[in-house]
């Protein structure tokens, strides 16, 4: 898998030191940075720690957080949101307000507060509950002290990339900005967005959908059934390289996660205001809206929603259906009625309108979403299904 390959690349490059830097591309530099734990305060966390390539670029570590949120480099700090999948993140445009749509679109993180992948990459090293460094100067110093990084940054980004000249207020040091650019270059490669799932192979005539998968596909793209594609489609039906998100923001009435709150690091009355947590957004009508995630690899990247409140993909579909189906009143994971929305006042009720689903139609939608699993993660899906059958 890519993780082991990256370590081999890093070892090879470091053994050659400056000589190796002569041929290193920006994406290759980003690859080495992605797996290097030196950019965390205790040297135990890299980007790959929370975005494990072997696990769909999500955090599947077994910690006291139970997968709801991620554990920081210090061994005890916890975040407040489920770690987003890094795969296919490069499909998102920069964060902006679309005047035609009258919607915020794009960006990174659940609230779009990072305009681009390069901007997003600058956040975790300085986040006290993630990699925990105090300031960007610490990152730049680590880059300067490593002959490989120093030579490569100088060649790729210019002789003045490590300048110590005073910066304007709010500006990012050139070397730190380049750090983000390199990671963005790596995250924009096919290693993150392979487009080789069964669905992609179906579009190329290389895979025949099962009857159930094809029913799910029909339902998914139908405006008269479940309305999935209103938020999880960017292009036209069955388009190549579809990211399965429109990169917009919605409040679908997700409840708070009591198991997350029980971890004790958040106040009992904690409310995540989603898009309203983005400094660029002030209108209260965006309260509780979160970015529509890509459905690529959704079957192998549980738990779901911004707070990890749902464990199973089928539960998510049943949650959507409960808005339109009086018979769907019980959360199958808890055996209790669905809890109220975390932010009830701004739920996008119109987008949630759809026909009630039968059990077979729910099975079909889940089956179709499983076809969006990248080929390299199909063994994970198979193992998951085998475990469920026991």
The largest beta-sheet arranges its strands as: 1-2
Please identify the structural class as seen in this structure. Answer: mainly alpha
Principal-axis shape: globular
Question: What is the percent of helical residues?
Answer: 25-40%
Residues in β-strands, percent: under 5%
Secondary structure tally: strands: 6
Show unreliable segments: 1-9, 11-19
Order of helices and strands: HHHHEEHHHHHHEHEHEEHH
Would you tell me the overall average pLDDT? 93
Give the N-terminus to C-terminus distance in angstroms: 28 Å
Largest sheet: 2 strands, antiparallel
Number of helices in the DSSP assignment: 14
Q: How large is the radius of gyration? A: 22 Å
List keywords for this structure.
mainly alpha; 6 strands; disordered N terminus; two-stranded antiparallel sheet; two-stranded antiparallel ribbon; 14 helices; 390 residues
Structure, described:
With 390 residues, this protein is mainly α. It is 32% helix and 4% strand. The chain contains 14 helices and 6 strands. The protein has helices at 2-16, 18-21, 26-34, 47-50, 117-121, 136-145, 147-157, 174-187, 198-203, 211-221, 258-261, 313-321, 359-370, 378-389, and strands at 96-98, 103-105, 249-250, 290-291, 330-331, 336-337. It has a two-stranded antiparallel ribbon. A hairpin with a 4-residue loop joins strand 5 (330-331) and strand 6 (336-337). Helix 3 (26-34) crosses helix 8 and helix 12 packs across helix 13. The longest helix has 15 residues, at 2-16.
């Amino acid at each position: 898998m890519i993780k082991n390959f990256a370590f081999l690349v890093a070892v090879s490059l470091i053994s050659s030191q400056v000589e190796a830097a002569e041929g290193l591309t920006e994406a290759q530099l980003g690859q080495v940075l992605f797996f290097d734990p030196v950019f965390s305060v205790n040297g135990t966390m890299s980007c790959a720690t929370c975005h494990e390539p072997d696990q769909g670029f999500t955090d599947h570590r077994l910690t006291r957080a139970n997968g709801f949120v991620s554990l920081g480099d210090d061994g005890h700090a916890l975040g407040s949101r489920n770690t987003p999948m890094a795969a296919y993140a490069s499909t998102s445009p920069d964060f902006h307000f679309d005047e035609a749509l009258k919607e915020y679109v794009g960006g990174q993180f659940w609230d779009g507060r990072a305009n681009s992948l390069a901007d997003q990459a600058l956040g975790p090293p300085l986040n006290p509950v993630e990699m925990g460094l105090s300031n960007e100067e610490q990152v730049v110093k680590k880059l300067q002290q490593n002959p490989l990084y120093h030579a490569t940054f100088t060649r790729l980004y210019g002789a003045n990339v490590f300048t110590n000249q005073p910066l304007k207020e709010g500006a990012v040091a050139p070397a730190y900005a380049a750090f983000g650019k390199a990671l963005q270059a790596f995250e924009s490669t096919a290693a993150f967005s392979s487009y080789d799932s069964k669905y992609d192979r179906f579009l190329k005539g290389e895979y025949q959908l099962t009857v159930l998968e094809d029913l799910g596909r029909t339902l998914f793209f139908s405006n008269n059934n479940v309305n999935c594609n209103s938020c999880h489609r960017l292009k036209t039906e069955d388009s190549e390289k579809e990211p399965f998100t429109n990169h917009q923001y919605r409040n679908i009435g997700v409840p708070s996660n009591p198991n997350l709150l029980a971890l004790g690091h958040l106040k009992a009355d904690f409310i995540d205001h989603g898009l309203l947590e983005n400094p660029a957004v002030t209108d209260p009508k965006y309260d509780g809206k979160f970015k529509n995630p890509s459905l690529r690899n959704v079957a192998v990247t549980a738990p779901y929603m911004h707070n990890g409140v749902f464990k199973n993909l089928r539960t998510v579909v049943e949650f959507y259906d409960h808005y339109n189906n009086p018979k769907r009143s019980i959360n199958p994971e808890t055996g209790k009625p669905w809890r109220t929305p975390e932010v009830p006042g701004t739920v996008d009720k119109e987008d949630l309108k759809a026909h009630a689903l039968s059990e077979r139609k729910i099975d079909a939608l889940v089956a179709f979403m499983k076809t969006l699993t990248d080929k390299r993660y199909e063994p994970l899906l198979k193992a998951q299904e085998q475990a469920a059958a026991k």
